[in-house]
Each structure stands twice: as C-alpha cells, then as structure tokens.
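look at this record:
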Amino acid sequence: MRITRRELRESIPLLAEEGWRDSQRAGAPGWSVRPKHFAGLLIEARLTVFVLILLVIAILLRRVLLVVFLALKILGHPAALDAWRGPVLHQTISRFGIPVDVYGGSESDSPILIVHGVNPTGKNSLDLVRISEALAQVGYAVYVPDFADMKKQHLRPEEAGNVKAVFHSIGRDAAIACFSYGCGPALVAAADPEIRNRVRFAVAFGGYYDIRETLEYVVTAPESPLAYLKWVYLGANADLAADARDQQQLRKFAEDHGGASENLSPDAQSLLQIFFASSPDDFRLRLRAGPEALRRRLDALSPSLYINGLRAPLILIHGINDPAIPVQQSIELAKAARANGLASSLTLLRMYGHVHPILPKLGATTLLAFYIPETFRFLAVLNEVVAIQ
C-alpha cells in the first residue's frame, strides 16, 4: 500500500502524540520536561549565577582593600595591613659576604630582590623596611641586600655583579625592584645574559637611564636643596685619581664643598673641573677632557648601554618634580623599552619628590586637583605590582 506525502505529513504529529501517551503510561523519561521541574532548574541556575557574582565581587573587594592597605603602609600608616595580614618574619642571612634581609609572611611566595639607593642607611632605611614588610604581607618573599659601597655613597660598576650574585642565590625566577641610583646596577644586572631570562619583571622607582645625563643635570642645574649631590659624586669618584694625596685632597674638597686645589696633579685637576661646568655643553667638553676612567665607570653604570639585553617587563615610577634625578630619565627609559619590544608601564607622580612623598595642605582645590587623581594613579601602579606576582 502506497502512502502519499500528504498522508505522511499528517501522520507524523499523530504518531508523536501517541508515542508521548505511551511513554507516560510506561513511565519512560525523556519525552517531556515537566513545567515544575523546568522551573526548579531555572531557579537553581539563577542562584548559581548570583553566587558567582557575589564571589567575583568579594574577590575584587579583597583586591581593592589589599591595594589600599598596601598604599597606606607605604605612606607610613601600617595599622590596617598589619591587622589583616599579621606580623612579618624577618631574618638576616649572608650571601657572598653580603648581608641580606629576608622578609616573609604567611602567604609569601613570589620572590623579589630590592636594591636600595645610594644612602648611608642602606637596607635599614625605615622607608625601605616598611615597604619590604608590606610587599611580604601581600605575597612576596622579599630579599634586601646591603651594599657597603653604596651606603658610603660610592656607586661602582662592580655592584651590578653583586646584584647578580644575590639574585643567583635566591635559586629561582624572581623580580627585581630598585630605588634611585640603585637602579643603575640593578638594571645592568637584569640585562646580564646569565640571569636576564629569570628576571620576571623589574620595578624602577626614581631611577636613571643614562648616568652621564644625570650627572650633567646635577652639576649644571640651578641651585637646589640637593645641590650637594655633585660634591657627593666628586668624593665618590676621588679614587680615580692615581695619586693617594690627590684622592685625599679631592675628598676634602668634596666634604667642604670647595677649597684649595693648586697642589692637585693635572689628572686630578681635570676631574675636579668637571664639577664646575656652567652649562650642559660645558659639562660635555670637560667630561671629554677629564679622566678616561671616569667615562668608563659612567658607561658601565648606564642602563642605556644595556637596554638591548633586558628581557623583563618594566614598571617605571618617577616623581614629576624629582630634584635629584630628572623625570626625563624614566621617560627615556620607557621609550627605549618600547623601541626594543619590552613590555613597560610608566607612572609619573606629583605626590613624590625624589623617593619621599610631598603632599600639599588638604583643601577643596587640592582634593580635586591633586589628591583624587594622585590616589588613583598611585593605587593603579600598586595594583600592577600586586597583580603581576
């Protein structure tokens, strides 16, 4: 018996309906979804989505609080972060004859090596201790070496080798952070072929890109509270004079910010004259006429000559009105990083001078024009440091 197409089309709905009735009589599942059961599934799905949204909000809120409390502790208000994260374990170890402070908390895991600036307190700077504790409380295992010559305000190329040696001793991939003039040897070390692929990222606060340009600025810039820095440079590099008596007289001249120089040898005189340059052009002429050993030392401490070796992403922070190292140094470093294909970010802050906060009196105008935008900039870069670990 033949069935026409029309009869076939009319019979399909009837067969489906009959099959549904048979399945209901037989108790077979799958032919239908009961309305009440479907409504229950819908409610469960909505509850799951609601719980997930609450979880995401809680995670975001936790991160926001963590970054805010981190900022407060860095700025000298540690109570909130200390109450939440508890005390930090602190011990001093020795690596290759270099004392290293190690900070860790209950959640510390990701290692970071911090290179202090050229200052007499070194790793024991109260600001650096507070920053190290704060980073440990947000999840970092913090290593802070004490570089003896840098504490004497003597910046030597050998410090890059010391940074590399301490980094090696950590025994695993780590980040590097640095402050001020400590960023020279820190970034030179980070570009070293032996460790550059193990440096996860680098944070440079108030650092320099080319130390020749930085010294030029210090020597020729208008008088400022930090004008004494040029004499610090002179005293630190007095060892470049060949004669011991010249070295002693140059150090005395640097301590007194002037004095007699008639008895200096021609070589020592050429070094001294660099620090009396009256303009950038004059400085460059005097530097070219000065000791070759000084030029070699400056080149060995300049990240500008090692940028091609860097592999780590850079987080750069600089005070816009920095009186010691001009902000242009970090701007140039950021441009060079991008030109070499390095991931980098640059945050310029009005709330910092060199490496210390400078905050205006709070008022309606400063609140809107200074405090609110600076707070968001500061929290954004701290969030980047927390997130990247």
